[in-house]
């Protein structure tokens, strides 16, 4: 017999299965665990400006000058970024350049 997972939204264990869906009666959340797994796998692939997949710990190079918001300065094209980290969000690359932490979009980087 398979175990029914807890609700991913409210963590209630009062969930039940209805066909392919799991339903939480406490918060009325419905989800399909196989569809969620496919979404996670699809989101996990982050590609650089050339289409190469980026992984945590990779080194990359900036392909374009980037103006800093809220500051007076730019990150110059050709700057090497070491040991990148992948984070969720619309700026999925977390890195440090000269000791300052930045969140960058992958289309401004190429894998080194």
From TrEMBL:
The superkingdom listed in its UniProt entry is: Bacteria
What region holds the Protein YjdM C-terminal domain?
46-112
Q: Where does the Protein YjdM N-terminal domain start and stop, copy by copy?
A: 3-32
Annotated InterPro entries = YjdM, YjdM_C, YjdM_N
Gene3D superfamilies hit by this protein: 2.20.25.10, SH3 Domains
Q: Name one Pfam family in it.
A: YjdM
Q: Which PANTHER family match?
A: PROTEIN YJDM, PROTEIN YJDM-RELATED
Q: Which family does it belong to?
A: Belongs to the YjdM family.
Q: Which NCBIfam families match?
A: phnA
Q: What protein name is recorded for this chain?
A: Zinc ribbon domain-containing protein YjdM
Native organism is: Ralstonia chuxiongensis
């Amino acid at each position: 017999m398979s175990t029914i997972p807890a609700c991913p939204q409210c963590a209630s264990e009062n969930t039940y299965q209805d066909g392919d869906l799991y339903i939480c009666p406490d918060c009325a959340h419905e989800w399909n665990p196989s569809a969620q797994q496919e979404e996670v796998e699809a989101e996990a692939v982050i590609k650089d400006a050339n289409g190469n997949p980026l992984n945590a710990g990779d080194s990359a190079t900036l392909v374009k000058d980037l103006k800093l918001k809220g500051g007076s300065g730019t990150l110059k094209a050709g700057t090497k970024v070491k040991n990148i980290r992948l984070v969720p969000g619309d700026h999925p690359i977390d890195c440090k350049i000269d000791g300052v932490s930045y969140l960058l979009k992958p289309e401004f980087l190429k894998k080194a």
